[in-house]
């Protein structure tokens, strides 16, 4: 009996024998990045923070990590595991290389923009300001209002177009709409601005600049993005949900409102945020339509309005008597624009989470 028991329950063998612990790759990665950042900080000693080569530090750190993880794995594990670790490190390095332009831009904008990130920048306009000082409160209000107006115009049109294409559209009309939406996706932004400017020149008169013109120009750019994104989200809603609603006698329009849209609300909000992020930094169409001003204007239908992209462009191109102060304002405007996009993305995620259908288990 004891022999049978011994055969039935063999001695347990640990599967982690000869393997690095899970925290080891992360520790080695942190060590490699720490060494390279210290090295590049030493090379930049005495220089400005903006001159720190963060791209070189990250790239060199990933190369050092590949060498370290391969050597350590070959010693502690085996040659096969070392090759596997090396391939994983190569894939991670490729991902970091793809992110290097974004990291470089964010680092430069944050370092340069913090110089003028003060209460004055968010409470003053540029009216009667010639040299240092001044702020961009008028540009912040203009960006928010013009983008909000464009969203109010573009989202209902784009969403209803996508609903038509998915739920109702058939034949030549649907194919024509899809073709036109694809064409609109590739329209240069300045063409949208010229189109709105030409329309208002015929209706109101040449030379006019209004905030609503900027909203319309941005809406032209937003509509195809909303249509394509919302269409894909509506198509992945299972047909079983629609059929179950129809079986209960619910009409089609109510099925779309109560079943299809709530199921895909998270993806629709993501497509809307992509559209907003696509247009909130546009400069060329706003220069033609909304114009620029040094004073605060919160009326979309009365006079020109300043926006953050135009403010940054104008501050850099027209530096005046104090070039350093003007360039600092341009960088601060760019940083503010990035923060606004980040806040809008977080708000969209919150809205999608609140309105998403609740899954209840049995």
Determine the strand fraction and express it as a percent band.
under 5%
- The Cα radius of gyration reads 28 Å
Which regions contain 5 or more consecutive residues with pLDDT less than 50? Answer: 1-15
Oligomer designation: single chain
Topology record:
Layout: H1 2-8, H2 23-43, H3 54-76, H4 79-113, H5 137-168, H6 171-185, H7 189-203, H8 211-235, H9 239-247, H10 252-263, H11 265-279, H12 284-289, H13 308-317, H14 323-355
Helix pairs in contact: 2-3, 3-4, 4-14, 5-8, 5-11, 5-13, 6-8, 7-8, 8-11, 9-10, 11-14, 13-14
Transmembrane segments: 23-42, 54-76, 88-115, 135-165, 177-200, 206-227, 259-280, 330-352
Main location: membrane
Subcellular location: Cell membrane
Question: What do you see in this structure?
Answer:
- It is a single chain.
- The protein has 362 residues and is mostly helical.
- It has two domains: 19-115, no CATH class; 137-355, MetI-like (MetI-like fold), CATH 1.10.3720.10.
- Helices cover 71% and strands 0% of the residues.
- The chain is built from 14 helices and no strands.
- It has helices at residues 2-8, 23-43, 54-76, 79-113, 137-168, 171-185, 189-203, 211-235, 239-247, 252-263, 265-279, 284-289, 308-317, 323-355.
- It starts with a helix and ends in a 7-residue tail after the last helix.
- Mean pLDDT is 86; it is low at 1-15.
């Amino acid at each position: 009996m004891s022999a049978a028991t011994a055969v039935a329950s063999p001695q347990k063998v640990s599967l982690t024998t000869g393997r690095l612990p899970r925290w080891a790759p992360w520790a080695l990665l942190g060590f490699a990045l720490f060494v390279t950042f210290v090295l590049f900080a030493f090379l930049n000693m005495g220089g400005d923070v903006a001159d720190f080569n963060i791209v070189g530090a990250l790239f060199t750190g990933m190369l050092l990590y590949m060498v370290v993880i391969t050597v350590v794995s070959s010693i502690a594990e085996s040659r096969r595991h070392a090759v596997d670790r090396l391939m994983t490190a190569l894939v991670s390095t490729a991902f970091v290389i793809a992110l290097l332009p974004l990291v470089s831009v964010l680092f430069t904008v944050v370092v340069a923009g913090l110089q003028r990130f003060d209460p004055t920048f968010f409470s003053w306009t540029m009216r009667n300001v010639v040299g240092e000082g001044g702020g961009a409160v008028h540009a912040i209000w203009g960006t928010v209002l013009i983008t909000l107006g464009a969203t109010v115009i573009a989202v209902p049109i784009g969403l209803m177009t996508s609903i038509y294409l998915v739920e109702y559209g058939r034949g030549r009309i649907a194919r024509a709409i899809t073709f036109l939406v694809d064409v609109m996706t590739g329209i240069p932004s300045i063409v949208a601005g010229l189109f709105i400017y030409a329309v208002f020149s015929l209706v109101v008169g040449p030379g006019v600049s209004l905030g609503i013109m900027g909203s319309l120009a941005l809406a032209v750019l937003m509509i195809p993005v909303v249509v394509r994104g919302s269409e894909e989200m509506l198509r992945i809603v299972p047909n079983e949900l629609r059929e179950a609603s129809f079986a209960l006698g619910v009409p089609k329009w109510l099925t779309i409102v109560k079943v299809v849209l709530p199921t895909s609300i998270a993806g629709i909000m993501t497509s809307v945020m992509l559209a907003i992020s696509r247009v909130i930094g546009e400069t060329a169409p706003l220069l033609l339509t909304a114009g620029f001003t040094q004073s605060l204007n919160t009326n979309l239908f009365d006079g020109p309005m300043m926006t953050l992209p135009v403010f940054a462009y104008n501050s850099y191109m027209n530096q005046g008597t104090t070039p350093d102060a003007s360039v600092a304002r341009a960088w601060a405007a760019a940083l503010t624009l990035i923060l606004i996009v980040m806040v809008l993305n977080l708000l969209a995620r919150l809205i999608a989470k609140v309105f998403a259908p609740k899954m209840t288990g049995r």
